[in-house]
Amino acid sequence: MLYTQSKCDKKIPKITSNSSHQLILSLGITLIELMVSIGVTSILITIALPSFNDFIVQLRVDNEISRLARLLLAARNHAINTQDNVIVCPLKTNGACSVDWHEELSVFVDSNNNQTFDRANNELLLATKSPINSGDILKYATNRNRITYQATGHLFGLSNGTLRYCPKGYEEKSRAIVIARSGRFYATTDNNNDGQDETRSNQKIVCD
Question: Sheet containing 86-90: which strands, arranged edge to edge?
Fold first, then answer.
């Protein structure tokens, strides 16, 4: 009787310790490859980090300018709609306005026209904006402590005003909101594509 070798009877090739070692090396990475990968990653991070920091700062500045614009718009619209004086300013604990524009800003109805926020007289607090990032600068004109909108929507006073925002260590990214005597305003842009914002009269934004 002839014996036929089945498929199950075929010999399975043995994996020696040497071939096993070679298989492990082929699946992994060497120490040199690991060091090269870490070096390349470090170089890429070093190159990309300044650009990322610039992006974060620019995002912060743009966000603050947008929040300030919404605050001014709310104040002006309320003054026109209610025919009351509306003030935007950093408030002290006693209800008076200060020049600390980097602190929390408040919008309130000055119903008795005394240029302070009187809780006792039930004056209406319309909105607030949280303080800016620590170390950054926010200034309004020259030591002015409030922006007052009259019932007509015009500013109280005889001149325009500029809210200037300067991020710490990135003065070239400074931006501003220029408020006209009419009460209308605009946010500055980079008019000449030099990487810095200017007013419509081509003045750079500085907070010195």
Answer: 125-129, 105-109, 86-90, 147-149
